[in-house]
């Protein structure tokens, strides 16, 4: 029988695309994996795309945004329908934050995320 979710396969609860890569190895969620999932949610909002969207050669939204960030083109990830109706610096901050660093220990702490989003 094919398994359609990670939970059915005996892993942590969650929807593919939002689950941090380390959860597949450790089999459990952590505070850092929650930060990853929240970052994916932010990307989904800012980019207007689902986490599992295949874009060019990238099999998920997170990898595409990471690529754009490395290329210095992170604003290319902003939802096109926004046009110029957003604050560029705020979009950059959210997208960089939401890139959901692949190394769990390199992800920001929850308090830092709250401060960034609330503008403190």
UniProtKB/TrEMBL annotation:
The record, for Pfam families, names: PK_Tyr_Ser-Thr
Q: Where is the Protein kinase domain?
A: 1-120
UniProt GO molecular function: ATP binding; protein kinase activity
Q: Which domain of life is it from?
A: Eukaryota
PROSITE patterns per UniProt? PROTEIN_KINASE_DOM
Which controlled-vocabulary keywords does the entry list?
ATP-binding, Kinase, Nucleotide-binding, Transferase
PANTHER family registered for this protein in UniProt: CYSTEINE-RICH RECEPTOR-LIKE PROTEIN KINASE 3
* Listed name of the protein: Protein kinase domain-containing protein
State the organism of origin. Rhododendron griersonianum
């Amino acid at each position: 029988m094919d398994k359609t979710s990670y939970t059915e396969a005996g892993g942590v609860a969650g929807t593919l695309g939002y689950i941090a890569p380390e959860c597949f190895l450790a089999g459990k969620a952590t505070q850092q994996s929650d930060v990853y999932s929240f970052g994916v949610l932010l990307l989904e909002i800012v980019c207007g795309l689902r986490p599992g969207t295949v874009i060019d050669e990238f099999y998920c939204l997170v990898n595409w945004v990471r690529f754009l960030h490395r290329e210095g083109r992170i604003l290319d990830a902003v939802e096109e329908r926004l046009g110029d109706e957003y604050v560029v610096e705020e979009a950059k901050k959210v997208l960089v934050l939401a890139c959901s660093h692949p190394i769990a220990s390199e992800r920001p702490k929850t308090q830092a995320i709250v401060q960034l989003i609330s503008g403190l």
